[in-house]
Amino acid sequence: MATPPVPVVAPTPGTPTPSTPDPTTAPARPAPRWLVTLPLMLGGGALIALQSQVNGALTGRLGTGLRASALAALVSFGSGLLVLSLLALLHRPTGRGVAALGGAVRRRRIPLWLVLGGLGGAFFVASQGLAAPTLGITFFILCFVAGQAVMALVVDQRGWGPNGVTALTRSRVAGAVLAVLAVAVSGAGLLSAVPVTGSLLVLAALPLLAGAVNSAQQGVNGRLAAHVGPWVTTWNNFWVGTLGLVLFLAVALLRPGHLTGLPTEPWLYLGGLCGIGFIWASTVTVRVHGVLVVGVFSVAGQVVTAALIGLLTGPGRPGPTTWAAVAVSLAGAAVVGLAQRRRHAG
């Protein structure tokens, strides 16, 4: 028997058809990824500033000399590795991912160089211990950011990061310059007191190289995260970085200095948690924005957070140069952020 035809009912005037969703009931479109991840990049920079404060205080409590800074870095990385290893034990997908990463490297499905990103953090700490006492922390950070910005342009332009080739534009160069300028403005008074000598310029090569390695590390982390996810990538960074810092501490113990024992204040051991947050945030956001944008926003987050720390805990209010540095850093973030928006829109 033939199936009777289904009657066609004409829609009531004003009633939306199935192909035309009712604007009053249709769900709102989610915000684009480039917009959602902007505060995540600023937050990552804020965590770097907090970690620097914590690790600096921990170094002073541990003793003197290079061995104290090396041990503080190892405590920071080691505590972060402990937290992430507990996560891998309690969270089955992360644990399986960590185990799978080791197998993939042994079978050469993932190249060895892709898991060495954590050495970038270890090299930064080592260069800080070797160069910062002579250069001063402000000049050290200035050189680090300069190396980071230049290498970030190269990594994105060559397509070494996870989001492909990003052309070199005036907006991107301007954003990188503003990031370096913000650090220079924030420490203008301290920089003027640094005597420029030949040995100082040679020593400045260490933070410059550390900044370049940091940008390469972010690109490597983004590519590894495409295979194993951000949490496994973060665990791998702390694992590799901790191994590197064990060797660095062994060398540092041969240098002058002394250790006084571990302090008892719990807040001095929060550097590892700050590092976890920063590495995870940069691993997630670099796949959306590229290395340069993450770096410029990170610098802005550091400058703003340092100003807020000075405002809340310092003996006096931050001066005009501090707020000028905040404005310059945010301007740099706005320049590269708007350029990234146009890129996504295109």
TrEMBL record:
InterPro entries to which the protein is assigned, alphabetical: YdcZ
Region (Disordered): 1-30
TM regions (residue ranges): 34-50, 70-90, 110-131, 137-155, 176-194, 200-216, 237-254, 266-284, 291-314, 320-339
One Pfam family in the UniProt entry: DMT_YdcZ
Keywords: Membrane, Transmembrane, Transmembrane helix
Pro residues bias (residue ranges): 1-21
Keyword Nucleotide-binding: no
UniProt key word Ligase: no
Protein name (database record): Transporter family-2 protein
Source organism: Microlunatus capsulatus
